[in-house]
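CORE FACILITY INTAKE
Project code: CF-77B
Contact: R.S. (postdoc)
Sample description: multi-component assembly, three entities in total
Requested service: structural model of the whole complex
Turnaround: standard
Below are the sequence entries exactly as provided by the requester. Do not edit them.
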Amino acid sequence: MEIIWQGIKQAIILIFTGNREVYEILFLTLKVSGSAVFFSMLLGIPVGVLVGLNKFPLKKFITAVINTGMGLPPVAAGLIVILFIWRSGMLGFLKLMYTPTAMVIAQVLIASPIIAGITLAAVQQIDPKLKQQVLSLGANRFQVYWILIREARLPALAAVMAGFGGIISEVGAVIMVGGNIKGETRVLTTAIVQMVRMGNFDMAIALVVILLAITFGVNFLLTLIQQKEGIGWIRRF
Amino acid sequence: MDKKILEISDLKKKYNSKFCLDVNNLYVEKGKILTIIGPNGSGKSTLIRLINLLERPDEGKIYFNGHKITNGEVSQTEVRKKMAVVFQEPLLFNTSVYSNIIMGLKIRKIKLSGVKDRIDYFTGKLKITDLLNRSTKNLSGGEKQRVSLARALVLDPELLLLDEPLANIDQSSRESLRSDLFGVLRGYGKSVVYVTHDRNEAMVLADDIAVMDRGKILQFAGKEEIFRKPANEFIARFVGVETLVDGVILERKGNVCKVGVTARKSNIEVSVVSQERKGTRVTLAIRPEDVILYSTEISSEESSAMNLFKGKITEIRDIGIFKRIEIDCGFPLSSFVTQNSVNRLKLALGKEITAAVKASSIHMFKR
Amino acid sequence: MNKFRFLNVTSILILSTFIITTTVFAFSCKEKVKNTEIILATTTSTYDSGLLDELIPAFEEETTYKVKPIAVGTGEAIAMGERGEADVILVHSREEEDRFAEEGYGTERRDVMHNDFVIIGPEDDPSAISGLTAVEAYITISANEASFVSRGDDSGTNKKEIAVWEETGITPQGDWYIESGQGMGETLRIADEKQAYTMTDRGTYLVQQNNLSLVVLVEGDEILFNPYGVIPVNPEKHKDIDINYEGAQAFVEFITGEKGQAIIKKFGVAEYGQPLFYPDVIK
């Protein structure tokens, strides 16, 4: 218990004195997971919307694939990525192994199905007659999708946050493709592993505190947005 | 140039080989209101969807403003931008009321600044000015439908399509919404197709009426003609004819036919204005409003009606403003009278009464 | 009505700006010139000691190379070298290193440094192994069925432990013999929790000392000698892969040269009172 308390005290000091290593790790984490969630959104939301709103022959099959992807173990995603990008792999010439880019790729692989799957489910909840109403208002195909995505904006936001939460707390894939190199590919989760291995508990706890703060903050933001009734909460602003 | 804003010709659509929509001729004149009435499942909503190009017919043509819109060349979106549809469910978006109302304008890229007056006008007429900033989530059914109506009206469409807009509203809200909506539509001046299963709405609103059943148009005519001269028993009942009796034309003198009606005891002769031939089997339709009651024997000076039926009152029913009186004069005859008349004539069950019906008021159709 | 829209638009703007800037940064992280990169495969215990965090920056300052140390188990490090996924390996498993060089996967094996393994255990030493030789200690532990934690992960440390067992002629098995399957740090913690015996490299023990209640009981035995070797990966074996052979050689020269050896000699002395590694080239 003493160690935990010690650790927490030290952690507070490290965080508030702007310890360089801590902040280096924090910013890298945000860059990597931030870009990953951005690209996952670009990929996941359109796929979820298109599959959810349209009827086509392989729809059930593709939906199943997306749902399976949602449950893809992150380390499986990591393995798939390294098989492509290591030196003897198909994309070895790109020299992506042990780079932040590789980590982004692995995280996109993990987060996109999550975002696509939740968006798909959300969009299927929309009253099918609403699409007819939108068409009758004179919307072209693009406008129809845009309006229906906006209808499902809250669940879509939840999907993005779920995707983000999943990748920022992931450690297996990101160590496999990134190598946990200090200053370059070391993010919060992998740094925690390394610090614990080296017996540097103060640092480890500091990083855990930061990681929890981020995940809590993201969830809190989502809850706030979901709870808003009409424009009530904006008035509180 | 063309007086008809919408014309439908030989439109057919099949559904799982069971139900078939088959409309051979229907049109809407510019600036007029066409009401389509019929029971549930008669194909009314399908027709609206076909007009708005939300579905494709299997066969047939639809003309809008003189141009054929059912071939593949025409842009569906462009056609829809000239119309507006309000469905039975409000189908609102989960944003603010104002945002919903202007959604159509935004889609059609109509500048909001130019139509501000229009928006204010309709939100005022539909009494939703106070709701503009609210989210649509917690509105009542009536309020939501008002928003949906405003959304369509602000688009100033060349053709407004309303598919049973009041059907899902609860009784208490329906009255006030109906009055507000009809207030807008009557002075509207634009072309409207109004679908309903409520004949009273049709009665109040329509210029022309089309009666539909099981995918077919049974009768398409001006309001007066539908109500006065329903083409068959189904329509007659639907438009509120209470008394229907079968008979045969015995003879015709000039433009008056004598129809022999099978009554309980004997044959009764009814005079009807018609050009039909002797021997034709017919059904007589008598509207309750056309049956005038007299308490005793009356002379021909008192009533010019050619038909005087004597009978006993078998039922007195309260139907709001009027009282429905059923008389057995050999066949069941219904009449609507005011409470005043009830009192004046001292109407009571079992009382002997004389009912007068003009030969010109009776509508007859072939059986 | 306008308020609502305004807030939606601003939040979208802020969100997009954040996301775009992070993306831009993420990509500006990319290496500009790729062939200055050297992938060094080494073991977790080597890395966890912290030595490379001092050696590598010194090397990078002197040259234009960038070293990427990947810390994995000895088996995996050697496998990486065999596959050409690394440019140079730094491990401590003499037999494996020799085989690696003989089979042509590596060009030349060079000595770098050494330390030793020690057998540690609870302070009260219930099996009384203190002062014994390594082999004797293992025999005693096995006979007493005293708790013993093994790495169980094919690492250099693990291979040394198994080598000692082979000398005893005993195959350790039973509830008392626990295989952690993890790195040295974790293994030490498990042993500490269970108040068990275990074998560790001295370096990791010194670093973790403050967190452990276990003490050194057996040391100095010749069999516990732990030499480290560095071997550049042979580019001839991987014609279709871009092996940074020059970089690997430069790295080898540095850590076996004056500067590198000096760093190794000094490492950890201030903090732990004794060095964690002993340089082998320039003593």
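Facility notes:
- Chain A touches chain C through 36 residues (CB under 8 Å).
- Residues 229-237 of chain A have pLDDT under 50 and may be disordered.
Invoice: internal transfer
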